[in-house]
């Protein structure tokens, strides 16, 4: 699979089953994770692998969290929570070890790096023929769940990645429209005199609304000469 195909087809699995990635595939998944951008080379990533019987421990942690945070949860609710650990043959808790003392690199950047690592893991899993889903929920942010997974108090879980083999076709894709999300910031070269002179570039600029043009090539041709006001 080409990298661009993995990026353009990434999706959450609906249901996952055996087999999980084997040792070789896991090595590639983690090697991909630690290529995430990492301001200050802090290596803030932490990963907890939960596979096979260890999922029982995760299920217990999730159920205990529900019991702590809800008044008298039903037996069914507790069991539902326990069963979440069995959504896939492999669960990886992805966390950021946030170094608050490293003032130059704000905590948010360390969290973002862990998020980028999780995304890379999803893509690597897909490239190797596996499926994945990324979940959090209140338990992900609970100190006792964190401790129960062997994480440190400074570790912030950014997601539980459920990994295995896709058991169902993917859900229909949500809107993948991006043009409405992109604004183009451009400027008038030689501004303000170029604008006053009414150059050829100015004429092209009049059509530029600040939105990404339907014809993307115009970005390269015209917009570098334009001043476009941001909405
Ligand atoms: C940080 C983060 C936490 C998420 N937590 C949950 C979650 O707890 N439950 C859930 O159903 N989806 C969660 N999602 C969303 C799904 O992973 C998924 O991206 C979304 O349902 C869209 O489907 P798609 O990945 O196929 O585009 C989370 C996504 C992110 C980035």
3D structure, described in words:
With 231 residues, the chain is α+β, with helices and mostly antiparallel strands. It has 2 domains: 3-166, NADH Oxidase (3-Layer(aba) Sandwich), CATH 3.40.109; 179-225, no CATH class. The protein contains 9 helices and 5 strands, in the order αβαβααβαβαβααα. It has helices at 3-9, 23-33, 54-69, 75-83, 107-127, 143-148, 193-196, 200-206, 217-221; strands spanning 16-17, 45-51, 90-97, 131-135, 155-166. Strands 1, 2, 3, 4 and 5 form a 5-stranded antiparallel beta sheet that branches. The longest helix has 21 residues, at 107-127. The radius of gyration is 23 Å and the shape is globular. 27% of the residues are buried. It binds flavin mononucleotide. Flavin mononucleotide is lined by residues 11-12, 133-137, 158-159, 174. Residues 11-12, 133-137, 158-159, 174 line the site of flavin mononucleotide.
Envelope shape? globular
CATH class of the largest domain: Alpha Beta
Radius of gyration: 23 Å
Task: Provide the CATH architecture of the largest domain.
Answer: 3-Layer(aba) Sandwich
Task: Give the uncertain stretches in residue-range form.
Answer: 193-198
pLDDT averaged over residues = 88
Main pleated-sheet profile: 5 strands, antiparallel
Task: Please give the number of β-strands.
Answer: 5
List of distinct ligands in this structure: flavin mononucleotide
How large a portion of the residues is in β-strands, by DSSP E?
A: 5-15%
Count of runs of 4 or more consecutive helical residues: 9
Which structural category fits the helices and strands? alpha+beta
Task: Write down the domain tally.
Answer: 2
Can you write the helix and strand succession as a string? HEHEHHEHEHEHHH
CATH H-tier superfamily of the largest domain: NADH Oxidase
């Amino acid at each position: 699979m080409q990298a661009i195909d993995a990026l353009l087809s990434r999706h959450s699995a609906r249901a996952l089953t055996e087999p999980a990635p084997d040792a070789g595939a896991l090595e590639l998944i983690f090697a991909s994770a630690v290529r995430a951008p990492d301001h200050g080379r802090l290596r803030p990533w932490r990963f907890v692998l939960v596979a096979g019987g260890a999922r029982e421990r995760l299920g217990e942690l999730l159920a205990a969290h529900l019991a702590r945070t809800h008044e008298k949860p039903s037996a069914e609710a507790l069991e539902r929570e326990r069963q979440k650990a069995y959504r896939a043959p492999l669960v990886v808790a992805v966390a950021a070890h946030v170094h608050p003392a490293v003032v130059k690199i704000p905590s948010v950047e360390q969290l973002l790096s862990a998020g980028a690592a999780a995304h890379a893991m999803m893509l690597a899993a897909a490239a190797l023929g596996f499926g994945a889903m990324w979940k959090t929920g209140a338990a992900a942010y609970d100190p006792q769940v964190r401790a129960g997974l062997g994480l440190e108090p400074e570790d912030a879980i950014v997601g539980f990645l459920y990994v295995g083999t896709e058991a169902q076709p993917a859900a229909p894709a949500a809107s993948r429209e991006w043009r409405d999300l992109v604004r183009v910031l451009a400027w008038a070269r030689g501004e303000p005199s170029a604008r006053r002179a009414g150059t050829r570039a100015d004429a092209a600029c009049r059509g530029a609304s600040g939105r990404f043009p339907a014809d993307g090539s115009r970005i390269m041709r015209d917009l570098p000469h334009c001043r476009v006001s941001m909405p």
